[in-house]
Amino acid sequence: MTTKKYDIVIIGAGVTGAVLARELARYQLDVLILDKENDVGNVTSMANSAIIHAGYDPLPGTLKAKLNVRGNALYPKLCEELDVSFKQSGSLVVATSEDEKILVQDLVRRGKQNGVKCSYIYPRRVLELEPNVLKDNYGALYCKTCGYIDPFNLVSHAIENALDNGVTLKLNHLVTAIAQVDGGYQVVTNQGSYETKLVINASGVNGVKVASLLETPSFKITPRKGEYFVLEKQFQPLVTRPIFPVPSKKGKGILVIPTTGGTYLVGPSSEYTEAFDDLATDTLTLNEIAKHAKTLVPSTPMHQVIRVYAGLRPTPSDGDFHLEPLSEKHPNFINLIGIESPGFASAPAVAEYVINKYLKSRLSLVEKKNYNPLVKKYVKLNELSDEARAALIKTRSDYGLIICNCEKISKGEILDLFSRSYFPTTIKGIKKRLRCGFGKCQGGFCGPKIVTLLSEVLKKDLNDINYDELETNIIIKESR
Amino acid sequence: MISRTLVIIGGGSAGMAAAIKAYDLGVKDILILEKGRVLGGILNQCIHNGFGLQEFQEELTGPEFLARYAAMTQERNIEVWFEHTVLNINANKEITVSSPQGLVIIKAQAIIFTVGCYERSAGAIKLPGDRPKGVITAGQAQYYQNILGQKVGKQVFVLGSGDIGLIMARRLTLEGAKVLGVAEIMPYSNGLNRNIVQCLEDYEIPLYLSHTVTKVIGKERLEKIEISKVDANYQPILGTEKIYEVDTLVLSVGLIPNLEIFNNPKFVTSSTRGLLVDNHFASEIPGIFSAGNCLHVHDLVDFVVKEARIAATNAYHYLQNQNEVSLQEFAVLKAKEMGYLIPEYIRIHQSDTAVTFQFRVRFPILKARIKLLNAKNEVLFQVVRLYLIPSEMVSLEVKAALFLQNSEPLHYEVEVLE
């Protein structure tokens, strides 16, 4: 129990909470961010399409449309400041029939209404841009501002930058109760309670559940599951930009997407699920996804799958984002929930929106003098020339020792993480940050080496090294 | 940039055997690049016996087998650079290598690629259900147990009856774990018969043929698995589900040649998912050869070293006569009953007396006539073979003289007699 009173407690260190925390770090505020997981960005922000949507898809006039377009515009600078891979590749929404061509042209008009630069391109032009797309296509929407990012490092670098500027993070803190107290709220967790003037609820798929600890909102959030395949790197690129089918009521459909790591994603499906933690994949759904992907990109090598996964979209019952105070009774409990796709693209605009619309009138926002928006540049050996790599190995021999052979990640790059204000402590954490285990062997070779390395760096026993959450130690605790 | 006559990538059994052979033929300027700290590769963790029956007429453990090869390598003073990982190989045979000592580019006259294989993962088989901690490949479990001396679980199920899976079923049993069973989706085992007997039957571990895991259950830690019987098309049969409470699911669901992507379009994949090679184990880049498990996965290490010696002999011939022109060149297509075929491209040289083909069948065949035909469907060569099974590689030798008149693609057919 602490008597300290925070200005703001943010519940949830997914992309929305992390980017907001980083934005709030520029002000003289005491900000605490809580997350129930053992790493940041570990639920919906971990399992998605990693696309920075342009904004041609949301219905004109919605908050979603406005913030998607604004967020997309903020991305190049955000990723530059946070040192995160972002490829503004453009995207195609491909028509596969005469009927779909009409829908694509409607989508172009909708995009323009939303203020997005996009156009209809003819089938031949589609094939010039993406030779592996269906030969008999009926043209496509082409938009240059869509892109794809490294979603894991966007969240963790935003958190790192927030911590560098004075924000406090507490992991493995599950919020169990919230009480209104004099001048604010008391947020009770499984590991102590925290007093704050204002609460930001950015708890994603659990958003309504968390809000209901105080008062039940008028809308519901239902998890909508999306399953994906990950395909291994190819000798010749399969596609160089996200390829979308024509959207339907069920969402954006099955896409074929390049990733910043060189692999490809195929998915997602779209099925409502009862459980808020149901991340299971199933064969029937995956087979269906594979079939759809082949209609769009016929040569998609479905025999080169290296991973399958599922994520949950926090789908609100009324369709739009909920970025507002919980109720008139609770002007200082602000929901940032119901943020399904385009949640990543919108995150920086959501932060801007909530600060301007709500926080400026509620708190005194005075800028810090020593605020630094930049994350200290990471050494990324695979992006360097041979000469630059050679020079770095001379300064530190660990940069020469390769630990992850599929992705060619050095011991030095892993050790670098631990000099940061926020660093991962799990196998999955290292995987998310550096791609060790994201390759075709899926950590078969580097996994045990990373367990050993983590035990050395963290000065813990081998059987205290977790795969992901607490008590997911790979080596069991039993003496012989 | 430094220059070397022959660079061998990978210091496992294939790499050592290739180096020793090349040295004995007279290539003295040899360098082995090894990413680990010791020679022997995966054999270091294969502490069970059964190695070397053909090579040394003795039953050795993996470390004993590799120690003999390491000694032969050292006797010849063959240079080995440890903790050296290849980052790139270009078409000029310039190899970019990273190590704690620095970054070096080596210009090789010839390269033999002997980097081994990797294990097919849970993701690659689209294992249905959750993705908790506790689902682990057999090789990884073997590393934790045999190299680090650490246990990974107490209640274990094994999916796949590949040899390492069977060996780990026994190994984990000996370490006190309860192995509840081994499920194999095929109606026959994928492991060697001797391993079924010595690793499962001797320990009363049940083998469930035509069964697979249809659901992994457990959010963070593995709690249960659901096993179902499958039909003739490998589809789960509803109503046959059985739940096992386990903390560990060991996967032994296949090994895949470790072909690296060097963004080099001249590296072509074969039906084994390794490098496309011809009958001299030569790739499409002149002077780059490949052998061992990075080419196709072998049944025994004894076959690996034998193949590596052949590749090394060919590399030696290449170094002697780099401009040798082939008399004939043509592709060979595998039969649909074959899982893969090596080689799938033939170059007949003056000195060739025979071409050896290696393949695996996709399903067991009691008796088959294997025919090699030309574009006009004329049979050039045929042979009848008995008891063909997927877990045993088949080798066929065809006289080179048969191909001297041929320049068109050939194809194999397998006529199932029984």
Rounded to the nearest angstrom, the radius of gyration of chain A is 22 Å
**Oligomer kind:** heterodimer
End-to-end distance of chain B: 59 Å
Extract low-pLDDT stretches of chain B. Answer: none
Main β-sheet description of chain B: 7 strands, mixed
Number of helices of chain A: 12
SSE class of chain B: alpha/beta
Q: What is the tally of beta strands of chain A? A: 22
Q: What's the count of strands of chain B? A: 27
Proportion of β residues of chain A? 15-25%
Write out key terms for the chains shown.
heterodimer; A: 480 residues; alpha+beta; eight-stranded mixed sheet; 12 helices; 23% strand; B: 418 residues; alpha/beta; FAD/NAD(P)-binding domain; Immunoglobulin-like; 3 domains; 27 strands; 18% helix
Short description:
Chain A has 480 residues and is an alpha+beta fold. Helix content of chain A is 30%, strand content 23%. Chain A contains twelve helices and 22 strands.
In words, what does this structure look like?
The complex is a heterodimer of chains A (480) and B (418). With 480 residues, chain A is α+β, with helices and mostly antiparallel strands. Helix content of chain A is 30%, strand content 23%. Chain A contains 12 helices and 22 strands. Chain A has helices spanning 15-24, 63-82, 98-113, 123-129, 151-164, 207-211, 283-296, 343-362, 386-395, 411-417, 427-434, 446-457; strands at residues 5-11, 31-34, 51-52, 86-87, 91-94, 118-121, 140-143, 147-149, 168-170, 175-181, 184-189, 192-201, 221-231, 243-244, 255-258, 264-267, 271-272, 305-316, 322-327, 330-337, 402-404, 409-410. In chain A, the strands form 5 sheets. In chain A, strands 1, 2, 9, 10, 11, 12, 19 and 20 form an 8-stranded mixed β-sheet that branches. In chain A, strands 13, 15, 16, 17 and 18 form a 5-stranded antiparallel β-sheet that branches. In chain A, helix 1 packs across helix 8. The longest helix of chain A is centred in the N-terminal third of the chain and has 20 residues, at 63-82. Chain B is an alpha/beta fold and 418 residues long. Chain B has 3 domains: 1-119 and 255-323, FAD/NAD(P)-binding domain; 121-253, FAD/NAD(P)-binding domain, CATH 3.50.50; 325-418, Immunoglobulin-like. Chain B is built from 6 helices and 27 strands. Chain B has helices spanning 13-25, 62-75, 138-147, 163-174, 193-200, 301-320; strands at 2-9, 30-33, 49-51, 60-61, 79-81, 85-89, 94-99, 102-113, 117-119, 135-137, 155-159, 178-184, 207-209, 211-217, 224-229, 242-245, 248-251, 255-257, 288-290, 328-333, 338-342, 345-348, 354-361, 365-373, 379-388, 394-399, 410-416. In chain B, strands 1, 2, 5, 6, 7, 8 and 19 form a 7-stranded mixed β-sheet that branches. Chain B has a 5-stranded parallel β-sheet with strand order 10-17-11-12-13. In chain B, helix 1 (13-25) packs parallel to helix 2 and helix 4 (163-174) runs parallel beside helix 5. Chain B is globular and about 65 Å long. At the A-B interface, strand 18, helix 9 and helix 12 of A face strand 7, strand 8, helix 3 and strand 14 of B.
